[in-house]
């Protein structure tokens, strides 16, 4: 029976395994022979001595930080959650680097869109200093807001001498880990200003690939006077957009200005809305004989100057459906234009190509939005307007709906992304889920937030989700199905593993053996351990958990029998046979079984348990202890 340890997914080991599957011939005694690998790759190996490379002090360490497994876990916090039993949304408190490591197995290739609004490195931002040797310990010290010498943490000031370096070292490992979570058709949007936009783009080119750069959006974020920099009034920021793999199309909702262009009416107005027209004659395409043909209108022959945009069959069908508009010009020739309706035949609104310059929504709207939620006393400054994030979330990739997707924000701040996700779901009937991740950074004692009782940013973010969700439901109370809108969230908090580490010295080995009779950290609950096991097995944290009693012992069934856990002591063969009965009752496609390592009544019971489970079609590799 294999035993679980307290570490997260080892990404390097996973990548080596994948490499071995593709190029088994480049391995010698489980080590990569790089000379052989170069031979196999042939012409695809860069052999020039001088080539462009974006580097900075600490980059190698940042790479190692991303590769180092975490010894952390996520502990459930029901009392701070909303609609725990039904929600599929997550709010996670903790250093996002550690959290991203812990999510690698459960959410790898599952996130459709990531939006982040990281520190802009203006000199006043909190920039987290990572420690690749023990970043979890580092986090636990930092959440107390003192370092190992008892010194209070400070901002990343320009006088530090490592102004850009510190920021890059923070961003690089987080973006590397975030990419793993994106689906093949997933995209990431990153808000930034001109302090670091150039460096961020170079980092993203390296992590996501230059070919997967989509756009550097210019967002006009202020409608009044902005900050004055070197003579110019600054009223814009940037949003970088990258995909995980090359995509063929990205479409967005039409804005109000574009919708107004569909101002013509015909007999289809009630079902298709207004329409606009587009010319069907073109002179820009190359000569194609099948696009050069006559059509007839009111007995007159119409021949294009060069050719038509559509084939003859498609154009004749459109004419028969009254989807073509003919206008006779003064010179006696005809203008032939196709009607484009605001709504498609299935009732959905037409979508368009997003433009690279966004004129709003503005920061002032974000402030107003928070003021309304918090009764005129916004506890969070400089929050993005939810309409901006909603617009980004609404984008469709490769013409596929994203209504069932997962949205991740690992610099979630005041939870604008969660607010935007719930708003969009209410508007279009979607069932998008969100995952918010935020460091519990303390609020300034002089701030409105602190005076209002919010001791850290996470408290603000959670309260905003509660209030925003209730407000959305109230504003849409007459809308069909609004009662099914998911406005809840499960709270998890980053902590050290529930499993005691085995690190004995000769001096205390006897005491350590006594402690290991129970190998869980004191004060941790069975539910804490269950969620850690779910993370290690790569199971979604929102999967349903059912508690059953089997021969007097508590048994957890996760995902309708996909995972069955028993953490009780004095486990007998009656319990094991009862677990087999439970597995047969639930009849999952595959089942994994986890027992407490020292929970069996005798070693012989443990041995026989494995044989019983194997006889009942449970693979030995799926039987674990913890």
Give a written overview of the molecule:
The structure is a single chain. With 626 residues, this protein is α/β, with parallel strands linked by helices. The protein has four domains: 2-51, no CATH class; 85-254 and 351-461 and 480-493, Rossmann fold; 258-341, no CATH class; 497-625, no CATH class. Helix content is 32%, strand content 21%. It contains 19 helices and 30 strands. Strand 28, helix 18 and strand 29 form a beta-alpha-beta unit. The radius of gyration is 29 Å and the shape is globular.
Topology of this protein?
Elements: E1 2-3, H1 11-22, E2 27-28, E3 31-32, H2 34-41, H3 59-67, E4 72-76, E5 90-93, H4 96-107, E6 111-116, H5 135-142, H6 163-181, E7 182-192, H7 197-208, E8 213-220, E9 227-229, E10 232-234, E11 236-243, E12 250-253, H8 256-259, H9 269-272, E13 275-279, E14 281-282, E15 295-297, E16 300-302, E17 307-308, H10 312-320, E18 324-328, E19 334-341, E20 351-352, E21 357-359, H11 363-373, H12 386-393, E22 396-397, E23 406-409, H13 416-428, E24 433-438, H14 448-451, H15 457-475, E25 490-496, H16 509-515, H17 526-537, E26 545-550, E27 553-558, E28 563-566, H18 573-586, E29 592-595, H19 603-615, E30 623-625
Parallel strand pairs: 1-30, 5-24, 5-25, 6-7, 6-23, 8-21, 23-24, 28-29, 29-30
Antiparallel strand pairs: 2-3, 4-25, 7-11, 8-11, 9-10, 12-20, 12-22, 13-19, 14-17, 15-16, 18-19, 26-27, 27-28
């Amino acid at each position: 029976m294999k035993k679980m340890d307290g570490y997260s997914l080892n990404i390097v080991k996973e990548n080596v395994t994948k490499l071995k599957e593709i190029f088994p011939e480049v391995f010698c005694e489980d080590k990569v022979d790089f000379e052989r690998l170069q031979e196999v790759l042939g012409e695809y190996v860069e052999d020039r001595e001088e080539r462009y490379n974006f580097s900075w002090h600490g980059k190698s360490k940042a790479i190692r930080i991303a590769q180092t497994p975490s010894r952390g876990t996520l502990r459930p916090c029901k009392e701070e959650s909303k609609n725990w039993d039904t929600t599929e949304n997550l709010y996670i408190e903790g250093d996002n680097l550690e959290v991203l490591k812990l999510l690698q197995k459960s959410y790898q290739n599952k996130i459709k869109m990531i939006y982040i609004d990281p520190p802009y490195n203006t000199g006043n931002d909190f920039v987290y200093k990572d420690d690749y040797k023990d970043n979890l310990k580092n986090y636990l010290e930092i959440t107390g807001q003192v370092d190992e010498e008892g010194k209070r943490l400070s901002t990343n000031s320009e006088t530090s001498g490592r102004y850009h370096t510190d920021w890059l070292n923070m961003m690089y490992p987080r973006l590397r880990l975030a990419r793993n979570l994106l689906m093949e058709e997933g995209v990431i949007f990153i808000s930034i200003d001109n302090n670091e936009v150039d460096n961020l783009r170079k980092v993203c080119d390296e992590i996501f690939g230059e070919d997967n750069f989509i756009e550097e959006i210019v967002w006009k974020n202020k409608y009044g006077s902005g900050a004055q920099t070197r003579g110019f009034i600054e009223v814009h920021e940037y949003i970088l957009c990258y995909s995980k793999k090359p995509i063929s199309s990205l479409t967005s909702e039409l804005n109000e200005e574009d919708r107004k262009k569909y101002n013509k009416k015909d007999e289809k107005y009630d079902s298709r809305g207004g329409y606009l027209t587009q010319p069907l004659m073109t002179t820009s395409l190359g000569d194609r004989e099948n696009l050069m043909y006559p059509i007839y209108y009111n007995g007159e022959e119409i021949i294009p100057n060069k050719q038509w945009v559509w084939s003859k069959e498609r154009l004749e069908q459109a004419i028969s459906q009254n989807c073509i508009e003919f206008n006779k010009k003064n010179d006696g020739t005809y203008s032939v234009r196709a009607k484009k309706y605001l709504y498609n035949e299935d009732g959905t609104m037409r979508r368009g190509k997003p433009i690279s310059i966004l004129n709003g929504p503005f920061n002032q709207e974000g402030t107003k939005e928070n003021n309304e939620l918090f009764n005129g006393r916004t506890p969070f400054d400089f929050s993005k307007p939810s309409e901006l994030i909603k617009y980004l979330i609404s984008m469709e990739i490769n013409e596929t709906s994203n209504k069932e997707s997962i949205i991740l924000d690992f610099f979630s701040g005041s939870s604008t992304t969660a607010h935007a996700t719930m708003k969009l779901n209410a508007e279009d009937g979607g069932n998008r889920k969100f995952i918010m991740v935020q460091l519990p950074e303390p609020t300034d004692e002089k701030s409105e937030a602190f005076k209002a009782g919010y001791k850290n940013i996470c408290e603000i973010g959670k309260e905003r989700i509660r209030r925003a969700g209730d407000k959305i439901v109230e504003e849409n109370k007459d809308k069909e199905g609004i009662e099914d809108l998911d406005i809840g969230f499960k709270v998890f908090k980053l902590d050290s593993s529930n499993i005691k580490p085995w690190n004995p010295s000769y001096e205390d080995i006897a005491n350590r053996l006594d402690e290991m009779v129970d190998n869980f950290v004191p004060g941790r609950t069975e539910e804490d351990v269950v969620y850690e096991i779910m993370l290690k097995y790569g199971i979604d944290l929102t999967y349903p958990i059912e508690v059953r009693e089997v021969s007097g012992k508590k048994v957890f069934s996760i995902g309708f029998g996909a995972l069955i856990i028993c953490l009780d002591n004095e486990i007998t063969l009656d319990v094991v046979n009862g677990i087999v009965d439970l597995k047969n009752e639930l009849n999952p496609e595959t089942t994994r079984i986890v027992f407490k390592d020292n929970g069996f009544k005798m070693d012989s019971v443990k041995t026989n348990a494995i044989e019983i489970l194997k006889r009942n079609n449970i693979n030995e590799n799926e039987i674990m202890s913890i």
